[in-house]
Amino acid sequence: MTTMLKIGCAALAAATVLLCRAPWGDVPIPAATDTTIGAPATAADTNAAVRDTATLRQAPPPPEAPAPVALRGQLVGLVDGIRWQPRIEIRAKGRVDDAWLEQEVLAVADPTGAFSFELPGWVRQARVLDLRLGASASDPYYDCQGARFDAEVLRRHDPLAVPVKAIAKLMGRVVDDSGIGIPAAQVCAYFALQGLPQGPMLACCNTDSDGHYTLRAPAEGELVLLALPMEPAQLSGMRLQLENGAIMDTGQPRTDLLPLAVSVRAGYGQPTQVPEHRLPAPSPVTVTVVMPAGVPIEAAQLSVGYPEDHQELPTRSAYRAQVWSLDRCAIVPSDLRLERGTTVLRLPAGVRVQLRPRALHDSLLSCFASPETEVAAPASCTLTLKGSLRTLTARRRGVPVPGAQVDVPMHPRTYSTSTDARGRCQLLLDDMPHTVTVQAFGGTPVRVHLTPEQPDPIFVEVSTTDEAPLTIATRSRLPVLAMTLEFHSQSSPGPPRTEHLRRSDPTRPFVVDLPIGTYRIVMSAPSDGSTPDAFLVSNWRHVTVESSGSTEDWTVEHGGRSRVEFQGRIGLALAEPLQLRRRGFETAQLTANEDPTTWLSPILSPGDYTLQQRGGFALAIVHITALQTSTIRVRLP
User: Fold this and answer.
1) Spatial contact of 501 and 473, defined as CB atoms under 8 Å apart
2) Do the beta carbons of residue 291 and residue 358 sit within 8 Å?
3) pLDDT per residue over 504-530, tens digit each?
4) Which of these, 21, 284, 351, 533, has the minimum number of CB atoms within 10 Å of its CB?
5) Residue 536 predicted with pLDDT over 80
6) What torsion do the CA atoms of 508, 512, 517, 518 make, to the nearest 10 degrees?
7) 43-58 helix and 2-21 helix, angle to the nearest 10 degrees
8) 190: burial class by Cβ within 10 Å (0-12, 13-18, 19+)?
9) Mind listing the pLDDT tens digit for each residue in 418-431?
10) Residue 600 contacts by C-beta under 8 Å, 6 or more apart in sequence?
């Protein structure tokens, strides 16, 4: 018992010495606990308190947050007496170490257009910085395209310039002859010169379901507003509606109406009511094109000219608008394709047009067009192509040769066509002698002299070459029943050859007979796009066809398309070509559809692509999925 008391006293003394040596300022006040009052403290409790005190003394202080970065900006383009109303939205995105950080702040401009804002301190450490400044909402008197900066902005001392444009707010309505509102009509603004539109289009908008519109034009003074009814070229199959109720597409073109222009005086900073657009009905000009002796033609091309003075205006449609006066406007392309030889032109009454047709068919070559014909709307006319029709048949050892190229040199150009599946083509020539060149795929050119006295048809024996079968076995996750192959001969110059190959059994190979030689073969989807095989990723390779035949093992890759539809200020997207980029793949170019707000990609491998404008400005991420067309809607500011 005495021994235990001695040990306890020694421990207590040691603890007392340690506590006395520790500075009182470093000892924390113990928190309230549930310990019973009067319970004696143990040695374990004392040792734990000492360890906690030492840990708090050695812990480093928390790091201080970096100081924020203060920047200044300036709205450039303000007009005296008209203030900027909405707030300014600043978006910063940067990469710090391996993480992407983002920050959004708002700023308010004073009457002079100056504003200031702060960004978090991490922007100083960002290896990549993207800073965008723009309006958080639309301003009734200004348009703001926004501005974009990189890390260099941190070393600038002058204010960041954000350009704005003063606008005139124009409001009106587009109706038909009975006063009913016309939805999805385009309204385009131009400067006025002597009462007619002049120069490029300033702004464009669409009407809502009742025909009303609100147009924001960055100009003041005398303007001309041209209203166009919805055309077939605007059809996209999608009904898009913008914030102000405007409709981009109704699914039904208005071919029963003509464009109409009105003049208005606009001013900055004030709404202006525009006189009503009452679109008139057209006066038709029916044109029929026939072959000599009245034989109907399968297809023709019609060139349309105008002897009267008129203005030709650029629009967002697939065509251009011709304007003779404010109430006499039309939309007619300069070159029309006539299926089955007949078309109807929609013109204002009294407008005169000059018409010149020519044949347009895969197996019919027209080197001469009929004399120019001039008519005034309304009218109906039949145009007969001039010349004598000659039939030429290409054969090899008495067997018709399809796809042989036929050239007719006529100063200052050479007209070309190719033979059909029966080895035939038709030439519409005048009564003078002509030299025609016929060249089969892989063979040498053969020249033939045609004279009016020769009997019809004319048989041409093309050069004989040895052929061998090319067998193409395909490997793919999905059965491929059809493909299109384009053969470019590397051993002898000549026109390329296109073969549309089909098979009913996917286990059997594709077989095509080719002249012996080396080719560059391009594989693509069938041109008609009627089967799932249309989603084949195009690729190519070099192939050598030998006398004993050749076999190729082709790995087929399936892909998809993307349809990109723009909403908002589509002028931002249409200003530069659009591209789809993916790391490790070639850049794909998007092509505009009939509707200028819709762009379609080629068939691509599945994956994520970045939609960009030329110059690197990223618009959206596009996901390509195999065997389908995905629609990506991009909302522009």
Assistant:
1) no
2) no
3) 888 899 999 888 889 999 998 887 666
4) 21
5) yes
6) -60
7) 20
8) buried
9) 888 888 888 887 77
10) 561, 562, 563, 564, 590, 591, 593
